[in-house]
Amino acid sequence: MTARADALAQQFAAANDELLALLEHATPEQWRSVTADEGELRSVGVIAHHVAEAHVRIARRVEAFAAGESVPARRPELFDARNAAEAQDNPEPDQRATITRLRTTGEEVRELIAGLSDGDLERTAAEDFGAEILTTAQVIELRQIGHVRAHLTSIRTVLG
């Protein structure tokens, strides 16, 4: 573990822990409350489930960047369809199970980030054809940590 990897892991953990704290205190009514998120209306529970599952998808990208492997395209044009399908498949996620999943996947991501070397963090690739070249550290900041923070903002509109 390097100081830089540890700092990134702590930033991720802090964002995830903040989200967990909000969700753990949500009433069943708040869990089902709908808020604008990524251009659509989704319940707090659906958003939380999405974040827990996205931890895994984004971590696979981080691993590919860090290992210098081929990075699958992000395909942002498909995000809305994937999010809608995810919400349709899980329209009323169980609060306890979702919180447990968010905690478990969050810890796995924190360990992944903390275990990266400075060389891993500096390795570069493009996420999409013709896209800007990013370092693994930037992907962690923009995608892994940024994803949690963006959804945290949406959830705060309901939970305070």
Please describe the structure with a list of short key phrases separated by commas or semicolons.
160 residues; mainly alpha; Four Helix Bundle (Hemerythrin (Met), subunit A); two-stranded antiparallel ribbon; two-stranded antiparallel sheet; 9% strand; globular
What does the model show?
This protein has 160 residues and is mostly helical. The protein has one domain (3-159): Up-down Bundle (Four Helix Bundle (Hemerythrin (Met), subunit A)). It is 69% helix and 9% strand. The chain is built from seven helices and four strands. It has a two-stranded antiparallel sheet with strand order 1-2. The chain is globular and about 45 Å long. The model has no long low-confidence stretch (mean pLDDT 92).
**Radius of gyration, CA atoms, in whole angstroms:** 16 Å
Write down the domain tally. 1
Strand order of the largest sheet: 1-2
The total of helices stands at 7
Number of strands: 4
Residue stretches low in confidence (pLDDT < 50, at least 5 long) are none
- In whole angstroms, how far apart are the ends? 35 Å
Brief summary of the model shown:
With 160 residues, the chain is mostly helical. Helix content is 69%, strand content 9%.
SSE layout and pairings?
Layout: H1 3-24, H2 28-32, E1 34-37, E2 40-43, H3 44-67, H4 79-89, H5 95-114, H6 118-122, E3 124-126, E4 133-135, H7 136-159
Antiparallel strand pairs: 1-2, 3-4
Helix pairs in contact: 1-5, 1-7, 3-5, 3-7
